Amino acid sequence: MVQGSRRTGFADSALVRLLARLSAADIRPTGQSTAERLGQWLGWTDAIALSTVLNGAPASSASSRPRASDAAEERECQRVRSTLTAAITEDSLFARATDATDSPMATDFAPYRQRYLARQQAMEVGIGPLRARLRSALAARSPAMAKLAAVDVVMTQALDAREHSLMAGVPAVLEKHFKRLRREAQDALETQAALDGEAAPIAWLDTFHRDVRDVLAAELDFRFQPVEGLLEALRTRQAD
Question: pTM, whole model, 2 decimals?
Fold first, then answer.
């Protein structure tokens, strides 16, 4: 049996757990299955379209791609992921703070919001075509896998708008975390100045930079799950 994406539900993902920790939120299990939560995301039109794909005749397959193409798809997925990961880990904005730690109130969140949105856009630009490429590879493999590729198209259409809305809220969580860290740093500086007559720098930005990198990495993992699912389907090499 061909398996589809093993995508983790948004509410169950490491990304949400990390954001909950940063915002000091208490996320309790809903008791709902992944299928139930998925059903809440699907509108009537999307559900009908998905049902049509699942129950319809398998799409035709012109020919079976050479097995050597599997390695090419693997390499391309690794390349895209490595590029996106490097963009996060090597971003100078998230490097170790220096002078900014001496003046906690002097730093503004706006540059971080812009950079985070830029990283999200880079993920979309990199992963979208990669996912389409893998669907094409599946469709050329067999009728069963062509049907799986069609399901992925429908799922993308059904869930992307909702996912985009959820991801758009991540910078707001980070901004609150940023302001809390900055406020705590300022309070600590004022207390230390009152006790010792001087204020030593507090590396609150280093903590924030690490947290932003962790959130970006978790978001990349989440966004890459459909790609991993499609790759796994290619590895099965299931015949008709």
Answer: 0.78
Residues 6+ apart with CB under 8 A from 108: none
The Cα–Cα gap between 156 and 141 comes to: 21
Answer yes or no: is 3 within a domain.
no
Give φ, ψ of 182 to 5 degrees.
-65, -40
Per residue in 118-150, pLDDT (tens digit) is 999 999 999 999 999 999 998 988 888 888 889
Please name the residue that has the structure tokens 């940063």: 22
Would residue 4 count as lying in a domain?
A: no
Does 5 reside within a domain?
Answer: no
Per the structure, how many domains does the chain have?
1
Greatest Cα pair distance, the chain, in angstroms, is 78
Q: Classify residue 64 by its DSSP letter.
A: P
CB atoms within 10 A of CB 37: 14
Dist CA 16 CA 222 (whole Å): 10
198-232 b/e (C-beta count within 10 Å ≥ 16 → b): ebebbebbbebbebbbbbbbbbbbbbbebbbbbbe
Nearest to 140 by CA among 80, 216, 59, 194: 59
Over the stretch 187-220, which tens digit does the pLDDT of each residue have? 887 777 666 655 455 588 889 999 999 999 999 9
What is the domain range of residue 48? Answer: 10-26+34-91+101-236
Is residue 1 in some structural domain? no
